[in-house]
Amino acid sequence: QFLYFIGVAHKTMETYRRITEKVRGALWAHHRRLMPERQFHRILAYVYNNKYEYQIRFDKMTCVGTELGGKVEVATTPAGHIKRVRVNPEFEDLPRDTREKLIVSAYAKAAAEGRELMQEAEMRVYRQFLRDLKPIVYGIRDNPEFYTVHEDTEELPGMTVASASSTDPNATHRTIPYQASWDASDVIRSARSAEQRFLDSERGKRWLLTLQGKKYARYEMPERRVKGAPGPKKTVEPFELVAPYTEMDEKKLLRRNWQAYLENKGVAEALWTRARTADRLRTDREMQRQGRAWHSPVDQNATAQW
Questions:
Q1: Around 232, how many Cα atoms within 13 Å sit in the side-chain half-sphere?
Q2: Which of 22, 72, 106, 289 is within CB 3.0–4.6 Å of 65 for a Cys-Cys bond?
Q3: How far is CA 158 from CA 138, 244, 276, in A?
Q4: CA 268, CA 35: separation in Å to the nearest integer?
Q5: Are 76 and 114 within 8 A, CB to CB?
């Protein structure tokens, strides 16, 4: 949902912060994982530094807008502050409102050029920001318990109300399908099973009696070794790292400093509650706008207090 902000050309740090808080809250809600405070601030620090670098360069830049074939020239910074206005002596002969229109038009051209530059810079900063968040978001998304429902579905705390379109089974999109995902360890496992199938066949058994086969068995098949021979006794399964179920830093934090752990946990829960409330409100407003929900009655006492 942080992609909701993509239409905004100029993003304040508050926007970036809220997006990061949302991701951090979702991490807690879906996995009971705390995003390390340092990581949180580092992501925002990158944004801040990039914006600052661009701003330093923009302050030295000049955007020029001209009118009347270069006889009226307005120079501004990309942010739209006027640096200088130059006009041809002939300009004095024009009526006042024409002169004003020409100057404003030249200014608008310069400002538009500057705005385009600043939008481009903002998009670059934003792209880097999304690149920082991407692995975290994918980590939240790509686990077997997480799936999306059709966009028209009404979601209630314990269930979803089926809409007309949600009867279609393809509308429920699982980020990881029911069959297990395929990763590097599966590749190794399948290669080994293929090898085993060959060795169990007639041709494989014959190959194992050749010189090459014996050499291979000696080095690659520890189960076939003589009892008491040095070296590993069995082939080990490849190590599998299951991201959603891997502990991050909260166990250690809990052991070392339970107060800090509780504090972080409280922050994570508050952030998630806040993100959920904001989403809920936005959905309510949207449904009210479409006429699919009642407007809440305004509490007169509450309004009178403020």
A1: 8
A2: 106
A3: 25, 23, 15
A4: 8
A5: yes
273 residue type, one letter: T
Long-range contacts of 73-79 (CB under 8 A, 24+ apart): 73/106, 74/103, 74/106, 74/107, 74/109, 74/110, 75/110, 76/107, 76/110, 76/111, 76/114, 77/114, 78/113, 78/114, 78/115, 78/117, 78/118, 79/114, 79/118
Query: How far is it, in rounded angstroms, from Cα 116 to Cα 108?
Result: 12
Q: Are 115 and 75 in contact (CB under 8 A)?
A: no
Q: What is the distance between the terminal CA atoms of the chain, rounded to a whole angstrom? A: 32
Q: Which residues of the chain register pLDDT less than 70? A: 1-10, 142-152, 155, 157-160, 162-184, 240-250, 253, 296-300, 302-306
Query: Tens digit of pLDDT for each residue in 22-40?
Result: 898 888 877 777 888 888 8
Q: Is 214 helix (H, G, I), strand (E, B) or coil?
A: helix
Amino acid at 247: E
Cα–Cα distance for residue pair 201/195, rounded to 1 Å:
10
| Cα(180)–Cα(182) distance, integer angstroms | 6
For residue 22, how many other CB atoms are within 10 A of its CB?
Answer: 22
The CA distance from 140 to 29, in Å, is: 9
Q: Say how many C-beta atoms besides its own lie within 10 A of residue 57's C-beta.
A: 12
Q: Is the pTM of this model over 0.85?
A: no
Tokens 């008491």 belong to residue: 228
Per DSSP, the residues of 284-304 read HHHHHHHTSSPPPPP-HHHHH
Place of tokens 């190590």: 239
